[in-house]
């Protein structure tokens, strides 16, 4: 497994990266951790003439935690997400999800930006970001714009990002204090993509659900954020009836495909089980 | 494609060479530098036989272009023996507890264990299993690998205590 | 003298001989990355070869155009079947008596088949050129189902029919269809049918043992270097049987055998994958002859999984009969064996289905019959023994499932059913209905020890409670108790009935004692992680009293090692280990004469004592082996040649029959199909134990490979013959996270015919482990009406079992 040759670029800033992208158009690709792109290049399923390595761009690094929002640079690795205690305090579901991604070595180099920008339905961060209602900052020749994660994914490997744009930041609203959060994933082994995975956030007040967000991973060609499932919980006492309704709504929304992990019927069933476990854990973690 | 001038620091020594940017780090180490400790097992970043320590991180060198590693500091299993050529603690504990059989995964295992113990000097067995899950072994069933790393942890901690 | 104050026990301990958990001598190199595997070999001017492979499972190759490929800078040659044909190398013999295309000769029979070999200055240029070789294919109908193959009009192999389209005879007798390879039978068919037809109880089951792959962490590869000046070919490679490879290379290339040197360097695991001969080996040799430069070929992981040596793929149909009390009276087994496009299994010639006829297992079954039909399909060739002796894993899985199925039919406890049918200790040597003579065993003792160790009755009580709780809605988890009792048949084998391509399956050891009392030993085997350099030295240490640390052990170089058939089928200890002991005993016999001369007594008046010969009745008068060695070379002794060395070629009188009792306790999440192995107990009896540490390591590893096979590891094809599991994402190799800690235990029943009583252990845990894990899964559902479900028990198949039983309603 040997990739084809390419010109290698390592720009020092975003502007430099953009100008290379503009110059070469379709022939250029940016690379972050590379653990999705490089295997594709080695299998010669991705043909790249110009590879733009973003590792020297400081503006894409760092985690900043504000009162209302957390901003994560696109080049922040899964390992850095896991190690950041302040982030775990502010948005604990991120550590929980990052820990079930790939394996330790891959987490050292795999970045949040690469994970959300690639559009691979198997990646965990896109669903998680939809659950968190995050926004992605895109910088292109026409300037900077933000796209909500819930509107970013169009189909497998197709996103709202234009070819000449770079995803630079992920901006996450800090969940209200006491929000119960859980990420649940079933996989065949460490290193595998999800058979089914689900991120859930739940807020309660006096035993009543005041807000909920439910997203599913690897159960369609994009992540699925399911408003109907969230709605089934909001206003309820989070009892069995409401939870079952939420699960039913989510199963309705997903469109898994058969693969080596199993047929559609199995995946739908397991998706429901996994989601229910995530809901139950989120409820248990919610306070107020 | 034209070749680039690659400069790295490997096992404490400055090294350089010419290579195409697409050259995978594992090939640069093995072919250009003749550092053949790291092995190629799967080529899709699943097995960990090619694990090296790159700027303080455990990395699968089959999935890194040498261009990306330009100017990096790299440690391979060859750099983990003592200066006098005797086995380092982790290496010795793998031998002591039969943590290897065919030896093919061993360089990656030991290099990964080195980083794991740097970050978590006193791991539980569960933490060792989770922390080593990026390295596959076909021979040992992992039980003695885990045992070796737990023993290395004890010994390294005892050494540290004695030094203090 | 200092060592006079040492007791014999101290002196024995100092030798680090048999029974000692000696640390491995190999590890000093391996832990520092100083192993020398085939891809580590770098020769001046070395080229790299890479294959163009077929994307189709069945197609005619209409044309190959390498013009563009040759333009890639650094490309030296593109070799096709047309280039090999004049040399007679476009086809090669397989170890199963079939022949196989080296490069596509007009058509391809499986996805990934070798079509052209590109040779270039380095692997990057070779890979670029592979992309540019243009091959025109005409797709043909694909057959991936062996039952369909036996009915189809599509003839897969054009060499299996005569000009009238009639099936010709194969290597193992007549074919009943062009896609049929052989029928192989053992036992008495009519008698077995009669017993089963009149039996009180009969249980029947059909089971599929899925296709999988040994997948050692190091893939296959070779480096060929033809020296045109000396006419000598040196071939390094991942060879589990280097001498056999030398003979095969000589036979097919016409190069005289003395001009071929085959070297197996360190091997990164074999597990059966590296027994066979592959196109890459042949092409690297041809390319080196053509270019006059050394040529390296290393396959990548996808190529390894898709093209080299799969294992299993047996459809097994069984009938077992018994009395109402559970005494087994008869066993009938029919197998449809899918061999893929070529029959490239590595079984001894007379056993095209390996030792499948060990399928009566550990039980005293008076009447039995087995028939195996081999079939061609559009899948990769192979059928090798993946960490087992030839087809023994399939055989043991079959009987251990049939026992469970019978227990269900009889409504009986499966442990008890085993106990009442075990061959009794006093029945050994035991003649099985299908033709084997089991050398020794004490099954009841082993079984009772295992049952006690796990508190079997307690486990069953807990399981019954779990079923109650499940039915009451208190839990969604079920508990399975997996049992297996296996008898392996290893150490192939007696030359009278075991050969491969006519090469007798003896093995060998040569020992030379140096004048200062240290030694070098060379064997015909080759370690792939088993630690031969450590353990074989221990045998010599105990036999002749030279410390194991003073013995160098070499294997794998055909120029220096004595001829042997290599390492697979757990044959190293049973055969080469025996040769080692026998060679050592020859040396000891000569040493005795020398000692007697030096002590000025008659030969019979001295006796061996750990590391010396002492005068009987006068232990203060002795000569150490060190002294004897020096004298052997440097003192003129009347009637005795100088020197102290010996070689032994050991033709075993029988196979050895290791056995063991395993128990697995598993919890199963009914809703997700996720199993959780709570406990695994493994009792092994491998006869005399040479190095307990290494035995334990072998058991851990074999069990983990068994876990993988039982719970998910498969080579799966779609109906177009595309491999669906070509990377380690989909081909299941568990990580440290998915693997439990194992409890190991043992009994010792030495082999009566082996010089040191050892039986071999490397493959037992795989053979016994697969049915144990599988039985645990299936046992969890027994209370809900499950009789049998096929492996691999991955999440979705376990879920489906639960779903089919209505447990999700």
Automatic annotation (TrEMBL), chain A:
EC number assigned by the record: 1.2.99.2
FAD-binding PCMH-type domain: residues covered: 1-177
The keyword Oxidoreductase is assigned to this record: yes
Keyword flag Oxidoreductase: yes
Molecular-function GO term, any one: oxidoreductase activity
Signal sequence residues: none
Pfam families, per database record: CO_deh_flav_C (PF03450), FAD_binding_5 (PF00941)
InterPro entries xrefs: CO_DH_flav_C, CO_DH_flav_C_dom_sf, Diverse_Substr_Oxidored, FAD-bd_PCMH, FAD-bd_PCMH-like_sf, FAD-bd_PCMH_sub1, FAD-bd_PCMH_sub2, Mopterin_DH_FAD-bd
Top EC group: oxidoreductase
Key words of the record: FAD, Flavoprotein, Oxidoreductase
Domain of life: Bacteria
PANTHER family for this protein: XANTHINE DEHYDROGENASE SUBUNIT C-RELATED (PTHR42659)
Protein name: Carbon monoxide dehydrogenase medium chain
Annotated organism of origin: Thalassovita autumnalis
Protein's gene: coxM_2
From TrEMBL, chain B:
Superkingdom of origin organism: Bacteria
CDD domains in alphabetical order: fer2
EC class (word): oxidoreductase
SUPFAM superfamilies registered for this protein in UniProt: 2Fe-2S ferredoxin-like (SSF54292), CO dehydrogenase ISP C-domain like (SSF47741)
EC numbers for this chain: 1.2.99.2
One GO MF term: oxidoreductase activity
Keyword list, A-Z: 2Fe-2S, Iron, Iron-sulfur, Metal-binding, Oxidoreductase
Annotated 2Fe-2S ferredoxin-type domain residues: 4-80
Protein name per Swiss-Prot or TrEMBL: Carbon monoxide dehydrogenase small chain
Species annotation: Thalassovita autumnalis
Taxonomic lineage from the root: Bacteria, Pseudomonadati, Pseudomonadota, Alphaproteobacteria, Rhodobacterales
From TrEMBL, chain C:
All copies of domain Aldehyde oxidase/xanthine dehydrogenase a/b hammerhead, residue ranges: 32-141
SMART domains for the chain: Ald_Xan_dh_C (SM01008)
This enzyme's EC code(s): 1.2.5.3
Cofactor annotation: Cu(+); Mo-molybdopterin cytosine dinucleotide
Name of a matching Pfam family: MoCoBD_1
Keyword Disulfide bond annotated: no
Keywords attached to this entry: Copper, Metal-binding, Molybdenum, Oxidoreductase
Gene Ontology MF terms in the entry: anaerobic carbon-monoxide dehydrogenase activity; carbon-monoxide oxygenase activity; copper ion binding; iron ion binding; molybdenum ion binding
InterPro entries (alphabetical): Ald_Oxase/Xan_DH_a/b (IPR000674), Ald_Oxase/Xan_DH_a/b_sf (IPR036856), Ald_Oxase/xanthine_DH-like (IPR016208), AldOxase/xan_DH_MoCoBD1 (IPR008274), AldOxase/xan_DH_MoCoBD2 (IPR046867), AldOxase/xan_DH_Mopterin-bd_sf (IPR037165), CO_Mo_DH_lsu (IPR012780)
Gene3D superfamilies for this protein: Aldehyde oxidase/xanthine dehydrogenase, a/b hammerhead, Aldehyde oxidase/xanthine dehydrogenase, molybdopterin binding domain
Catalytic activity, as annotated: CO + a quinone + H2O = a quinol + CO2
Subunit text: Dimer of heterotrimers. Each heterotrimer consists of a large, a medium and a small subunit.
Function in brief: Catalyzes the oxidation of carbon monoxide to carbon dioxide.
Protein name, as recorded: Carbon monoxide dehydrogenase large chain
Gene from which this protein is expressed: coxL
């Amino acid at each position: 497994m040997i990739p084809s040759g390419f010109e290698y670029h390592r720009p020092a800033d975003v502007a430099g990266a953009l100008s290379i992208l503009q110059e070469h158009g379709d022939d250029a690709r940016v690379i972050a951790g590379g653990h999705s792109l490089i295997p594709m290049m080695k299998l010669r399923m991705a043909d790249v003439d110009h590879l733009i390595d973003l590792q020297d761009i400081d503006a894409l690094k760092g985690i900043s935690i504000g009162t209302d929002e957390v901003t994560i640079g696109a080049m922040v690795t899964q390992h850095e997400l896991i190690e950041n205690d302040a982030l775990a305090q502010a948005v604990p579901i991120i550590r929980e999800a990052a820990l079930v991604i790939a394996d330790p070595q891959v987490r050292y180099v795999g970045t949040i930006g690469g994970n959300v920008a690639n559009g691979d339905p198997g990646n965990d961060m896109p669903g998680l970001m939809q659950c968190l209602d995050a926004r992605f900052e895109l910088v292109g020749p026409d300037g900077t714009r933000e796209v909500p994660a819930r509107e970013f994914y169009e189909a497998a490997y197709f996103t709202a990002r234009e070819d000449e744009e770079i995803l630079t930041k992920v901006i996450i609203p800090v969940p209200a204090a006491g929000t119960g959060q859980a990420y649940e994933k079933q996989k065949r082994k460490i290193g595998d993509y999800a058979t089914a995975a689900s991120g859930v956030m739940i807020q309660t007040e006096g035993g009543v659900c005041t807000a909920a967000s439910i997203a599913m991973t690897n159960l369609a060609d994009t992540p699925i954020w399911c408003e109907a499932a969230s709605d089934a919980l909001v206003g309820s006492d989070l009892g069995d009836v409401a939870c079952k309704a939420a699960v039913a709504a989510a199963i309705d929304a997903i469109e898994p495909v058969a693969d080596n992990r199993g047929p559609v019927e199995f995946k739908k069933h397991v998706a429901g089980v996994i989601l229910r476990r995530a809901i139950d854990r989120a409820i248990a973690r919610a306070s107020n | 494609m034209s070749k680039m001038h690659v400069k790295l620091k490997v096992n404490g020594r400055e090294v350089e060479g010419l290579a195409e940017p697409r050259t995978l780090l594992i090939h640069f180490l093995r072919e250009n530098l003749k550092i053949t400790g790291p092995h190629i097992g799967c080529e899709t970043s699943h097995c960990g036989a090619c694990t090296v320590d790159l700027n303080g991180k455990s990395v699968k060198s089959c999935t890194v272009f040498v261009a990306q590693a330009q100017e990096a500091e790299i440690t391979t299993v060859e750099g983990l023996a003592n200066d006098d050529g005797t086995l380092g603690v982790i290496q010795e504990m793998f031998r002591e507890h039969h943590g290897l059989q065919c030896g093919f995964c061993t360089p990656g295992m030991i290099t990964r264990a080195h980083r794991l113990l740097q970050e978590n000097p006193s791991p539980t067995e569960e933490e060792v299993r989770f922390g080593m899950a990026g390295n596959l072994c076909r021979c040992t069933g992992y039980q003695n690998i885990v045992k070796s790393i737990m023993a290395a942890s004890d010994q390294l901690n005892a050494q540290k205590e004695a030094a203090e | 003298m200092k060592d006079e104050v040492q007791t014999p026990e101290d002196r024995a301990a100092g030798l680090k001989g048999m029974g000692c958990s000696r640390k491995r001598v190999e590890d000093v190199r391996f832990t520092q990355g100083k192993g020398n595997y085939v891809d580590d070999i770098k020769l001046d001017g070395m080229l790299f070869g890479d294959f163009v492979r077929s994307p189709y499972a069945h197609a005619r190759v209409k044309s190959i155009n390498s013009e563009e490929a040759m333009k890639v800078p650094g490309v030296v040659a593109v070799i096709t079947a047309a280039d090999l044909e004049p040399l007679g190398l476009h086809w090669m013999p397989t170890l199963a008596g079939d022949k196989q295309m080296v490069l596509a000769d007009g058509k391809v029979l499986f996805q990934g088949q070798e079509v052209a070999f590109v040779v270039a200055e380095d692997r990057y240029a070779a890979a670029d050129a592979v992309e540019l070789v243009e091959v025109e294919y005409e797709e043909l109908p694909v057959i991936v189902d062996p039952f369909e193959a036996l009915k189809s009009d599509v003839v897969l192999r054009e060499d299996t029919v005569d000009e009238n389209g009639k099936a010709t005879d194969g290597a193992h007798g007549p074919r009943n269809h062009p896609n049929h390879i052989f029928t192989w039978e053992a036992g008495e068919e009519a008698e077995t049918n009669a017993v089963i037809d009149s039996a009180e109880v009969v249980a029947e089951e059909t089971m599929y043992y899925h296709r999988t792959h040994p997948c050692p962490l190091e893939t296959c590869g070779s480096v060929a270097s033809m020296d045109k000046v000396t006419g000598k070919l040196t071939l390094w490679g991942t060879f589990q049987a280097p001498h056999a490879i030398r003979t095969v290379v000589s036979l097919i290339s016409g190069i005289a055998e003395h001009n071929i040197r085959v070297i197996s360097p360190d091997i990164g695991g074999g597990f059966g994958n590296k027994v066979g001969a592959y196109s890459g080996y042949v092409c690297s040799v041809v390319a080196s002859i053509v270019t006059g430069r050394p040529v390296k070929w290393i396959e990548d992981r996808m190529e390894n999984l898709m093209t080299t040596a799969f294992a299993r793929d047996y459809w097994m149909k069984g009938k077992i009969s018994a009395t109402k009390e559970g005494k087994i009276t008869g066993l009938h087994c029919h197998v449809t064996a899918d061999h893929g496009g070529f029959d490239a299994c590595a079984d001894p010639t007379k056993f095209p289905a390996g030792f499948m006829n060990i399928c009566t297992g550990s039980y005293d079954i008076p009447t039995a019959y087995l028939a195996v039909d081999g079939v061609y399909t559009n899948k990769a060739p192979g059928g090798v023994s993946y960490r087992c002796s030839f087809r023994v894993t399939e055989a043991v899985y079959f009987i251990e499932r049939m026992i469970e199925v019978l227990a269900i039919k009889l409504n009986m406890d499966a442990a008890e059913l085993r106990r009442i049918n075990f061959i009794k200790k006093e029945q050994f040597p035991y003649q099985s209905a299908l033709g084997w003579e089991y050398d020794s065993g004490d099954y009841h003792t082993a079984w009772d020890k295992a049952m006690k160790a796990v508190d079997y009755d307690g486990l069953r009580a807990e399981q019954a409670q779990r079923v109650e709780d499940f039915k009451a809605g208190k839990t969604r988890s079920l508990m399975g108790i997996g049992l297996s009792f296996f008898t392996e048949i290893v150490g192939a084998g007696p030359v009278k009935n075991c050969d491969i391509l006519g090469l007798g399956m003896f093995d060998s050891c040569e020992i030379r004692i140096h004048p200062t009392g240290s030694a070098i030993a060379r064997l015909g085997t080759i370690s792939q992680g088993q630690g031969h350099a450590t353990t074989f030295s221990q045998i010599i240490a105990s036999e002749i009293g030279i410390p194991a640390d003073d013995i160098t052990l070499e294997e794998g170089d055909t120029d220096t090692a004595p001829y042997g058939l290599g390492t697979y089928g757990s044959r190293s200890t049973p055969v080469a280990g025996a040769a080692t002991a026998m060679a050592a005993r020859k040396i000891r016999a000569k040493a005795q004469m020398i000692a007697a001369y030096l002590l000025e007594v008659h030969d019979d008046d001295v006796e061996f004592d750990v590391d010396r010969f002492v005068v009987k009745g006068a232990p203060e008068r002795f000569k150490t082996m060190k002294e004897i060695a020096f004298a052997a070379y440097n003192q003129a002794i009347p009637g005795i040649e100088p020197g102290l060395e010996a070689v032994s070629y050991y033709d075993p009188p029988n196979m050895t029959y290791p056995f063991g009792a395993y128990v697995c306790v598993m919890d199963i999440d009914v809703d997700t199909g996720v199993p959780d192995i709570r406990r695994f107990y493994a009792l092994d009896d491998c006869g005399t134990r040479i190095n307990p540490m290494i035995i334990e390591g072998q058991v851990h590893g074999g069990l983990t490979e068994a876990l993988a096979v039982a719970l998910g590891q498969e080579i799966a094809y779609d109906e177009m013959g595309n491999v669906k599991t070509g990377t380690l994402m989909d081909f299941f190799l568990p990580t440290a996270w998915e693997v439990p800690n194992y409890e190991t235990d043992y009994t010792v029943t030495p082999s009566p015919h082996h010089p040191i009583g050892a039986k071999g252990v490397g493959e037992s845990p795989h053979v016994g482990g697969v049915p144990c894990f599988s039985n645990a899964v299936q046992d969890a559902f027994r209370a809900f009406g499950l009789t049998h479900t096929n492996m691999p028990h991955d999440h979705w198949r376990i879920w489906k079992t639960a779903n089919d039983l209505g447990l999700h309603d």
